[in-house]
Design brief:
The protein is an alpha/beta fold. The protein is built from ten helices and ten strands. It has a six-stranded mixed sheet, sandwiched between helices. The chain has a four-stranded antiparallel sheet with strand order 2-1-4-5, with helices on one face.
């Protein structure tokens, strides 16, 4: 299995604070990896560096051997890395369908003139985009809500919609930041099944941050543990569960 994403000695400093120190990770194609740790451990900072929100102080991010460090978030998305957020970031006054279409639009080839003139090329691409987005909505059984404002969806459905918008960018790697936050036990079980389904259906590599250990241990093949910005453990779910350093970090013993 070829390594898709190489992360070498990634470090992020804010003034005198080291948020993440010498983080290393190789993600293989179609792998599902968990990134866990106590609050403030640096997990979301890692995601922000991978997606261009932060420029790393040191280290390298290589996707298919292309250096991503200098790129802006939009350019990284077009290369094939998409993410969701710990706090849902939907366009809540837009329709469910339009939220997904916004993700897909990075792949549109028509220009502003074609859009203004509503040219045949524009119409063709828009119709194709609409159909592909409706197909995505069917995955999470949201097609019946396509024309509903996103803000009117139940919380769990808004979580699913944000994942769909990320999928619409046609990523190679999907970063999920606490996808189970705010979900009940039944919704979390459904989410676990959905993550496994979309990984298989879209041939995705997935890296997820999550505090729900049942979800992490239930679907991740490999887990990394951060504490105060440093990687303190890496291994299978079984190895992580019995690691005394991890137990100490979580329980503060």
């Amino acid at each position: 299995m070829n390594t898709l994403l190489h992360i070498h000695d990634l470090t992020m400093r804010f003034a005198g604070l080291v948020a993440v120190s010498e983080f290393n990770l190789g993600l293989k194609k179609n792998e599902l990896v968990g990134l866990i740790g106590p609050n403030g451990a640096g997990k979301t900072t890692v995601f922000n560096m991978l997606t261009g929100v932060y420029t790393p102080t040191e280290g390298q991010i290589l996707l298919n051997d292309e250096l991503l460090n200098p790129l802006k978030p939009h350019d990284i998305t077009t290369r094939g890395i998409a993410r969701t957020f710990q706090n849902i970031r939907l366009f809540k006054n837009l329709s469910v369908l339009d939220n997904v279409r916004l993700g897909y639009h990075i792949h549109m080839s028509y220009g502003l003139f074609a859009m203004a003139m509503e040219s045949p090329h524009y119409e063709k691409e828009e119709n194709e985009a609409r159909q592909k987005c409706m197909d995505l909505l069917k995955i999470f059984h949201l097609q019946q809500n396509a024309h509903q404002q996103a803000k009117n969806l139940p919380y769990g459905a808004q979580r699913r919609l944000e994942i769909l918008r990320a999928l619409a960018t046609q990523p190679k790697i999907l970063l999920l930041d606490e996808p189970a936050a705010g979900l009940n036990a039944r919704e979390t079980e459904d989410l676990m099944a959905t993550i496994q389904q979309i990984r298989k259906q879209f041939d995705l590599t997935i890296l997820l941050i999550e505090h729900d250990m049942k979800l992490v241990m239930g679907i991740c093949e490999r887990i990394l543990v951060l504490d105060h910005g440093e990687t303190i453990a890496e291994g299978t779910p079984k190895e992580i569960q019995s690691n005394p350093t991890v137990i100490k970090a979580y329980l503060g013993e």
